[in-house]
Amino acid sequence: MRSPPLFYAAVVVIAKYKPEKAHGAGKGFDMLDQIKGLHHVTSMAASARTNNRFFTDTLGLRRVKKTVNFDAPDVYHLYYGDEVGTPGSVMTYFPFPHIARGRPGTGEVGTTLFSVPEGSFGYWTDRLTKAGVEGLKMDAAFGENRLQFAGPDGDGFALVEVRDDPREPWTGNGIGEDHAIRGFHSASLRLRDEGATAELLKFMGYQPIDAKDGILRLGVPGGNGADVIDIETMPNVSGGRLGAGSVHHIAFAVENRTKQLEVRKALMDTGYNVTPVIDRDYFWAIYFRTPGGVLFEIATNEPGFDRDEDTAHLGEALKLPAQHAHLRSMLEEHLEPLEA
């Protein structure tokens, strides 16, 4: 099976798609309207079992898919979200045993924030405290109350109280509707310089909402609820190092492949080096590296996580992409069982 160095190389293979030195995005080009907000956020972890327990038992999300990394099939790719894995609700992980913890810094996603109902922080503070979750801290930003906390590998997370978020929560893991996570609220990008990435996001359809304390907030009007990005400018902070607890890439949602191809052409026309369309079984993906160093993905809402499993049983069976189906017996023996 794959050694840690080879695995590490496999999951960062997309890094070869670098931005050019100059772009026309935001400078005479029409703003895109295909992107509706976040699709998913993909991070690294050190233990599949710990990761699964945290997101399903502690946060109450549903595991909607248990599959493997397409480029390193001896490593899980786990997906957590609402009942059907609605775009804008899905946190995904590559868990690799004993991988070193990442070093936070610039050029990466900083905090991933989830939407919860107003008045639920008392419940969540008690729940997270009893679960031994570290880094609990109450604060506010842009007029919104937040409860910050750390994931098992030091991942940066926060809950945000949102009034009347219409998205349906998953309550199958024992958290009631009055408190359950609705999906993503937003994500922050930590950058040494906001300029070029801010222009890129504006080109992608994000509009400035507010700026305060070195943070620029942008959002997609009429988006999918997971439609806010905060840019934290940190000119004196060194670059982050990918590892457990780091976000590998952040994905933005488009309705279908036609919209995705429109976005791809527009990005390439402005000077971005974008990958070909890649079939990820549950969505189609394209990737490109931003001027600030963050890896962006544009993912389709189709075909969805129920393409190979009934909705009632999402995330139960190990699903393998066709090119790795012949490895099933070996992988089932090798991969860490998710339940003790």
Kindly describe this structure.
The protein is globular and about 50 Å long. The chain is built from six helices and 16 strands. The longest helix is centred in the last third of the chain and has 13 residues, at 257-269. It has helices at residues 4-11, 48-58, 121-130, 195-203, 257-269, 328-334, and strands at residues 38-45, 62-68, 76-81, 90-95, 108-117, 137-141, 144-150, 156-162, 183-191, 207-212, 215-219, 228-233, 247-254, 278-279, 283-289, 295-303. It is an alpha+beta fold and 340 residues long. Strand 2 and strand 3 (76-81) form a beta hairpin.
Major sheet: arrangement of strands:
2-3-4-1-13-16-15-14
Order of secondary-structure elements: HEHEEEEHEEEEHEEEEHEEEH
Low-pLDDT runs: 1-17
What share of residues are in beta strands?
25-35%
Chain-averaged pLDDT: 93
Which features would summarize this protein structure in a list?
single chain; 340 residues; alpha+beta; eight-stranded mixed beta sheet; 16 strands; 17% helix; 32% strand; disordered N terminus
SSE map:
Blueprint: H1 4-11, E1 38-45, H2 48-58, E2 62-68, E3 76-81, E4 90-95, E5 108-117, H3 121-130, E6 137-141, E7 144-150, E8 156-162, E9 183-191, H4 195-203, E10 207-212, E11 215-219, E12 228-233, E13 247-254, H5 257-269, E14 278-279, E15 283-289, E16 295-303, H6 328-334
